[in-house]
Write a structure and sequence with these properties.
The complex is a heterodimer of chains A (about 575) and B (about 140). Chain A has 16 helices and 15 strands. By secondary structure, chain A is mainly alpha-helical. Among the domains of chain A are: about 65-225, Zinc/RING finger domain, C3HC4 (zinc finger) (Herpes Virus-1), CATH 3.30.40; about 280-340 and about 365-520, Up-down Bundle (Four Helix Bundle (Hemerythrin (Met), subunit A)), CATH 1.20.120. Chain A has a three-stranded antiparallel β-sheet. In chain A, strand 12 and strand 13 (about 320-325) form a beta hairpin. With about 140 residues, chain B is of the alpha+beta class. The chains are: A mainly alpha (about 575), B alpha+beta (about 140). The complex binds zinc ion (ZN) (7 copies). The site of one zinc ion has 8 residues of chain A, from loops. One zinc ion binds near residues 154, 156, 184 and 191 of chain A. Chain B: InterPro entries: UBC, UBQ-conjugating_enzyme/RWD.
Chain lengths: ~575, ~140
Amino acid sequence: MDSEDDMHDANDIESLDDDFYSGETEDAPLDYYSDYDDEADDYFEDADESDKIKSRRPEQNFTILRESDIEQRQEDDITRVSTVLYISRVDASILLRHYNWNVSQVHEAWFADEERVRKTVGLLDKPVVEFPNARELTCGICFENYPCSRIESAACGHPYCISCWEGYIGTSINDGPGCLMLRCPDPSCGAAVGQNMISLLASDEDKKKYSRYLLRSYIEDNKKTKWCPAPGCEYAVTFDAGNGNYDVSCLCSYCFCWNCTEEAHRPVDCGTVAKWILKNSAESENMNWILANSKPCPKCKRPIEKNQGCMHMTCTPPCKFEFCWLCLGAWSDHGERTGGFYACNRYEAAKQEGVYDESERRREMAKNSLERYTHYYERWASNQSSRQKALADLHQMQTVHIEKLSDTQCQPESQLKFITEAWLQIVECRRVLKWTYAYGYYLPEHEHAKKQFFEYLQGEAESGLERLHQCAEKELQQYLSADGPSKEFNDFRTKLAGLTSVTRNYFENLVRALENGLSDVDSNGAASSKATSSKNGAGSSKGRGGRGKGTSRINKMTDDSSWSCEHCTYANGASVNTCQMCRQQRR
Amino acid sequence: MANSNLPRRIIKETQRLLSEPAPGISASPSEDNMRYFNVMILGPTQSPYEGGVFKLELFLPEEYPMAAPKLGRICLDILKDKWSPALQIRTVLLSIQALLSAPNPDDPLSENIAKHWKSNEAEAVETAKEWTRLYASGA
Ligand SMILES: [Zn+2]
Ligand SMILES: [Zn+2]
Ligand SMILES: [Zn+2]
Ligand SMILES: [Zn+2]
Ligand SMILES: [Zn+2]
Ligand SMILES: [Zn+2]
Ligand SMILES: [Zn+2]
């Protein structure tokens, strides 16, 4: 049984080859890679028209915000709340901050129960204590007496002298963004201390910090906005829930995933990316992790420094998550059952059970799994560095070469866009290819057919991209170093533009196929096929893996039986006699 | 000396701690550093600590009262992010006393005190005697 299955596997891969890649109809040469109107396709049968169009021409469901845009939006929101609720702008700002800048939530909560909202947020409508006829008051912090002119209070009326307020506010601002939630110093009071008090009592430097925190809060606490994670980039992004495409490209040219804020990682899902990144850091930084005296807060991921003796960590406001330094578990999970607070059991248990003390067999396994990991990691990393290089080359093209080329080839720069486009495509494809290695690493070993199919697609992608990269890098070179116009330049344009489009289509289809989890390959190892009316008879003997009625959207870019066009060198599939790229006849 | 420019607030707090001590709590400043207090809290009646004495050292940092007093390894919210300059040494010690009278096994403070108490029982009894002597002789 097993061996028979193995045979099927081998057979099926072959049939996949025939069915999914080379089958092409001659009457639609430019449909080779994509079209919406051909008869059908087994492979991508799940995608409906609108999905295809969307992923092809992604509708932008995000907006990039500059600092001035952010300030404007924040001001507008404060104005809205202040107008609708008929409260001061300071109070509106406190309310919004409390409800994570969600205007409709503020309105809803306020109109449902104003009194309760006022209480939780600390917006008092009248003082708690009053000293109508006092000429002197005792400061509740330094216990000194002061004339009333030297005393300030929040809405509650609790009296503190100006220098104590300055100390109180300064300490809070320098403690971090928790200052946005500042309350009256009286522990039983809770009256909010708003920006008016800050303006009155903070130093200029602290006022700047406070405004900065307020701006940051607008982005960081708002569920619909995030900072662009690129280092040094100061743009923010606002995202409207949309078609499930989380890719965002910032004005700084960085592309990232809205959902997990890692670098854009289609076709791999966020969970796999997180696992992979964790794996990478575990392999390389095990020791650093253990020795570090700062760890990321398990909730908000900001680094929290351990500067106290006890293991009870409290993240800085506004997160305030309480966790255990040793096991990074929630502090609320800790009690006697974890073996006492300063000898956290979850940590000790791991050691006692010998998790770190491997037997010989496990060492062997570990070695194998390390080798396997290294295989994928190296390829992932080398595509990453290749992408970095391509980015640098792209930059060089845009800033130096295009202009020069425009001179020597007597072409307007607008006619040279195809070069930039090729490089942009290379950068994008390197990114996709890189993530296919994480995809491959987590593809279950036992799904042989899927694995083989995947590796096949990946191999095709790799070689197709190499061809494009080489054309853009090496073949361009002769025109860059030429002194005058060359008559082959137009052919070069045709070729590079063609390769760019072919590669773009291939990769777009690859991304979709992988995002579908290669769902067409069933567990028995064949490509499942609802339509079995195989025309060319090249399907598997048992009718599995048939190519169905029509074209596959993933097509081979190179093939043993392919022929290389004499005109443009494009490698065409065996079944066509017209070059897919330049439409010259096969010779 | 560090005591020469002690803020009025610390002087006032100290005077009050000595003149009107909270029941079951003694806090006396060290002679050579007025920011350093020796604290003893009597185990509250009908608590597991009844008859015992919990000894603590309390230190007022330079930033006090903007920063909380330092109390060794004690893990108490008002000593961390819940600190307010309107709180006082007395409030802090009363909070600890309250925790002793209603120990919560899930509370890290109780856990710590319990350990301390168990490991130093002999010493604690000694302290209790000394305490009683001091207290009885009307300090
Ligand atoms: Zn004062
Ligand atoms: Zn107040
Ligand atoms: Zn950016
Ligand atoms: Zn993601
Ligand atoms: Zn946190
Ligand atoms: Zn723990
Ligand atoms: Zn051709």
